[in-house]
Amino acid sequence: MKKIVFFIIYIVIFSACDNTTTEPSNKFVIEAFLYANEPVSDIYIKSTFPISEVNDISEPISDAQVTLRKNNTTYPLVPSDSVGYYHYPDTDLTVETGDVFQLEVTYEGVTATAETIVPTPTEGLQVMPDTMLFPLLGFGPTPDSVRAYLGSLRMTATWDNPLEDYYYLTIESIADTPQSIFPDMIASILARFKYVSEPTNGISITVPGVSFTSLGTHRVKVYHINQEYVDLYLNQEQDSRDLNEPPSNVKNALGIFSAFNSQEFLMEIGRL
Description:
The chain is mostly beta strands. About 10% of the residues lie in helices and about 40% in strands. The protein has two domains: about 5-120 and about 225-260, no CATH class; about 125-225 and about 265-270, Immunoglobulin-like (Sandwich). It has four helices and 17 strands.
């Protein structure tokens, strides 16, 4: 699942903020994202939890009725292998620029609805350098010259943004058998490399070379973000003494339904 890491903590705060308008047994949280030109698989439903709880004790909900509607056609979603997630199992549903989607979730007699529009794709994406080379690292002391070289490695992605919209960047290793940049002992505890930035309304994001963990081909994607997601991101830091309900585009429940569109670039990580 393409879980957007910087958003997860905030949705916990969001799902805990309001405990007065609906009975807890009838309240749930929707965390649903569509990605242009990709299958529908990132629709997540979970329970709320009392604001008095320090930790997130929400539970995934796997028995909701979930549907998407586009152009007056309804597409029923089914539970995924990951508990709480739903996906569309067939190939006749596409997510394209400008598509308007309505989401409907029914659980324990409560029906929640939301709507989103697929934004325009990112344009003008460039990544420099397109190849980044790392020295062979060992377990002994690292020479100062090598440390200086590693510290100088940078990858910068730039794109067009005349309207100062918000974007975020992901980098993911797509090599069939990725090889670690680090010694084998360290490599054995590392998962496949995935990097997710925070949103920005600028025109570039720079990632230090030391953030990378594996050699091989990497897919760099910059996603154009919808306003409903921007509103939630900008409101994610709240003073604990002022827990106002954050913005939402979901009616009759809590959460967010949004869509993203991207442009991608392939880069290589290799050895000197």
